[in-house]
Design goal:
175 residues; single chain
Length: 175
């Protein structure tokens, strides 16, 4: 019966080593899975930002269209008001006033366009930073998984060697 105990200890060590190795392999798979999820999230962030940028640009075009229509209405109202009062709009102060109003309207349109493009640039930058963070975290998950698998393999090998050494020592002593 005493000869059976070292063999049981050796089998137990082998089972422990296998369990350690398998645990490392599972951690590696989990790291790969987490990395894939993060890469997918990075792609979604980029796609979402591209769509948001398109919406910002479309809204800017619509806003410009509305502003130009309003500009035409305003100029028409001014011309009509001057004409009703008997003032000629072809020269002098009325023409300068209308030109000034058009210039202010154009300036406002230009500022709105610049703001829209600035929003696009900010959105693009923020999404790229967020996507890069996800991609970096994905790489880290792969590194952690590989490291866990490597550590588990070494630990399993150590358990096997220790069990074999213990078995050898007990069988030599008992022999």
């Amino acid at each position: 019966m005493p000869a059976v105990l070292p063999a049981i200890a050796l089998i137990g060590g082998a089972m422990s080593a296998y369990g350690t190795y398998q645990s490392g392999q599972e951690q590696k798979k989990m790291g790969e899975y987490n990395a894939s999820v993060m890469e997918g999230e990075a792609n979604l962030i980029k796609a979402g930002a591209a769509r948001e940028n398109e919406i910002i640009r479309q809204n800017a075009v619509l806003q410009e269209y509305r502003a130009r229509k309003q500009q035409a209405v305003d100029v028409g109202s001014m011309v009509g008001a001057f004409a009703r009062s008997g003032v000629s709009v072809n020269t002098g102060s009325p023409l300068n006033y209308i030109a000034d109003q058009i210039a202010n309207s154009e300036l406002s349109i230009s500022i709105d366009k610049w703001n829209a493009e600035n929003n696009v640039a900010t959105n693009t930058y923020n999404s790229e930073v967020s996507a890069l963070n996800k991609q970096s975290n994905a790489k880290l998950q792969r590194i952690y998984g590989t490291s866990a698998a490597t550590n588990a393999t070494y630990s399993a090998a150590g358990t096997l060697l220790s069990s074999a050494s213990s078995y050898y020592g007990k069988t030599k002593i008992g022999a």
